[in-house]
């Protein structure tokens, strides 16, 4: 298009939708990356706890302080956290990505 011509309104609208979808995808991917980092952190903590004998003192963070705990409780909490993160990844984030992809396909079909 020459500099004197403007884009048709329908094309401007479609470009806006695509830009919004791109921003949504970036947000979803950032959430997924955060969940993956938390999961990796939990896995590492579990590995370290396995190295500790049952009679050694272990501690966990509670806000900005450390609280004495026992190994069994911490392992249970970390495993529960991993399961929650796994469900979050498999359910919400995957669903969000699939919905965004379907929106993209619907918008794409308008151009074809």
Could you walk me through the main structural features you see in this protein, from its secondary elements to its overall organization?
The protein has a single domain, classed as Helix Hairpins (Orthogonal Bundle). By secondary structure, it is mainly alpha-helical. The mean pLDDT is 85. Strands 1-2 form a two-stranded antiparallel sheet. The protein starts with 8 loop residues before the first helix and ends with a helix.
Describe the structure concisely for a colleague:
The chain is built from two helices and two strands. It has 112 residues and is mainly alpha-helical. Strands 1-2 form a two-stranded antiparallel sheet.
Task: Give the SSE string.
Answer: HEEH
Query: Structural class, from helix and strand content?
Result: mainly alpha
Radius of gyration over all CA atoms, rounded: 23 Å
What is the spatial order of strands in the main beta sheet? Answer: 1-2
| General shape | rod-shaped
Oligomer: single chain
CATH architecture annotation: Orthogonal Bundle
The share of residues in extended strands comes to 5-15%
Count of extended strands: 2
Low-pLDDT residue intervals, each spanning 5 or more residues: none
Largest sheet, if any? 2 strands, antiparallel
In whole angstroms, how far apart are the ends? 20 Å
CATH class category label: Mainly Alpha
Total helices: the number is 2
Tell me, rounded to a whole number, the average pLDDT.
85
| CATH fold name | Helix Hairpins
Secondary-structure blueprint:
Elements: H1 9-51, E1 58-62, E2 65-69, H2 71-111
Antiparallel strand pairs: 1-2
